[in-house]
Give the backbone structure.
Amino acid sequence: MNKPMKLTILGATGSIGTSTIDVMLRHPESFAAYALVGHKNVDLMLELASKVLPELVVMTDESAYALLEGELPKNIRLECGMAAAEAAAAHDDVDMVMAAMVGAAGLPATLAAVRAGKRVGLANKECLVTAGRLFMQAAKKYGAEVVPVDSEHAAVHQALAGHDRDSVTRIILTASGGPFRNRDPESLESVTVEEAVAHPNWSMGAKISIDSATMMNKALELIEAKWLFDAKAEQLSAIIHPQSIVHAMVEYRDGSVLAQLAMPDMRSPIVYAMQAEPRLESGIPWLELAQTQLLEFQAVDEARFPAMKLVKPVLAGEDSLAIALNAANEVANQAFQDGKIGFMAIVSTVEQVLAKTNNQAVQSLDEVWQLDADARRLANEVIKA
Ligand SMILES: NC(=O)c1ccc[n+]([C@@H]2O[C@H](COP(=O)([O-])OP(=O)(O)OC[C@H]3O[C@@H](n4cnc5c(N)ncnc54)[C@H](OP(=O)(O)O)[C@@H]3O)[C@@H](O)[C@H]2O)c1
């Protein structure tokens, strides 16, 4: 019998992290944990570590590490900080890394996994948005297999499998339209954080839920798709599909369109990223199309969702624009969560930062971090003003 695949889960205490653990525990013969990596959530880490019994737990936040000291079941080592997370991702015993930290903070540890040639399940889309070129170059150089976890990209991955890439004409990502798809645009200024995180179809972390409400999430996903599938800006588009059953479509030169369908539950793309074939049971409900009364599709209204207009020059432009879009969005998304700005100011902050950003390619991670810091500073200035 084969040994179980050993995983390091970055962002183990998050929505994707806990769904990954759910899948892992369903298949103990196939998967085991080397390390669980969390940031601040000590109580949940204690609960997860007691169930999963990894060899190592890492808390990237120092005070969370101090609180967890002496509390873990014996034989589980505890380490602290981002360097420990990077080492846990690159360790020789690890077969696969689930990259599920949130934001650009996840880049160093995910890159460490890539440089160690691991199979990487990539949920942390901000890695590709900020450093797509360097990330994919490193994956090629070190032989790391990067498998998307985002449901739309997992769908594209499946619709591309076994087909000639040169025959692809379009890649179409679906978007639910989030909680404000039908809301009067005039009333959006006053929406609360609770309303913005209440996604109609998906249960997700706060940041991505708000990104879905602004559709900045789809903007990030289009940039992610550009790097993952080596696609041109004009091949990429999004379409509103409120039911979130069709996750993406790939159109071929002969007019065939291949779509992937599943109930909206992240355990499906997660299990696919962990082991594509033979397919494993994921625990998600079966899709009963006869009971799904309607599958609707409509064009994205860019007046309602200005993020989708904003992303077009970013997709066609150089790396600096994507870095600025992501960093400004992280700052503005957090400022909205902290009650410092209204909902509509999230995208307008990003727009103002982009207007002040030069369109330039980057050659090194140092340049990525410099541009990221510049955009965060500009975003904070816009918010203060
Ligand atoms: N949720 C989904 O359905 C979904 C779907 C597709 C893609 N994604 C992507 O997957 C990633 C994770 O999303 P999520 O919804 O799972 O987020 P989440 O529930 O907010 O969890 C985020 C995880 O990252 C950790 N974290 C937060 N800040 C950190 C920092 N500064 N340094 C290191 N770790 C940090 C958190 O640790 P603590 O909680 O311990 O502080 C937690 O483990 C995002 O990039 C998102 O866009 C998510």
User: Anything to note?
Assistant: The two ends are 63 Å apart (CA to CA). The pocket of NAP is lined by residues 11-17, 38-41, 60, 100-102, 105, 123-126, 150, 202, 204-208, 266 (CB under 6 Å). The chain is about 45% helix and 15% strand.
